[in-house]
């Protein structure tokens, strides 16, 4: 099993005399949790990645006007919604030199954007690979 959690918090002095405001580049808490099972040549992994969100009032003032890169709340204000994904990966060693691997990322087909990126992440996607090592 694996787990990672990242939490940052802080304030900065605003140049427009607004006092202490949220840091512009501090993301909301995020992380991942995974379970791995391995038996001889077969390895399976179930992984969830997640991110908390920011309400409009928790965004830095410089971010509050960036409506194109955030979701909009009921009042039309930008905010960063929370999200999660669920991934399943697997691999199988074929002899000493070959490995077949594949997976399904974002199994639940969540529509999300990593904080402040402005780019919507891909929906459900499938991966298949064959690796040769010599």
Can you put this structure into words, describing what you see?
The protein has one domain (2-52, 82-132). The chain starts with a strand and ends with a strand. The chain is elongated, with a radius of gyration of 20 Å. The protein has one helix at 61-64, and strands at residues 2-6, 11-13, 20-22, 30-39, 42-51, 71-72, 78-79, 83-94, 98-105, 125-132. A hairpin with a 6-residue loop joins strand 2 and strand 3. The model has no long low-confidence stretch (mean pLDDT 93). Strands 1-4-5-8-9-10 form a six-stranded antiparallel sheet, with no helix packed on it. By secondary structure, the chain is mainly β. It contains one helix and ten strands; from the N terminus they run βββββαβββββ. Helices cover 3% and strands 47% of the residues.
Task: Please outline what is shown here.
This protein is mainly β and 134 residues long. The chain has one helix and ten strands. The chain has one domain (2-52, 82-132).
């Amino acid at each position: 099993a694996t787990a990672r959690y990242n939490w940052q918090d802080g304030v900065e002095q605003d140049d427009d005399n607004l006092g202490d405001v949220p840091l512009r580049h501090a993301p909301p808490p995020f992380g991942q949790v995974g379970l791995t099972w391995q038996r001889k040549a077969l390895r399976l992994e179930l992984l969830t990645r997640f991110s908390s969100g920011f309400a409009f009032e928790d965004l830095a003032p410089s971010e509050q006007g960036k409506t194109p890169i955030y979701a909009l709340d009921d009042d039309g204000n930008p905010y960063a919604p929370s999200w999660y994904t669920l991934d399943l990966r697997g691999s199988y060693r074929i002899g000493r030199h070959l490995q077949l691997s594949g997976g399904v990322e974002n199994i639940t087909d969540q529509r999300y954007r990593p904080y402040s990126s402005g780019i919507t992440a891909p929906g459900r996607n499938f991966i298949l690979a064959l690796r040769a090592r010599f």
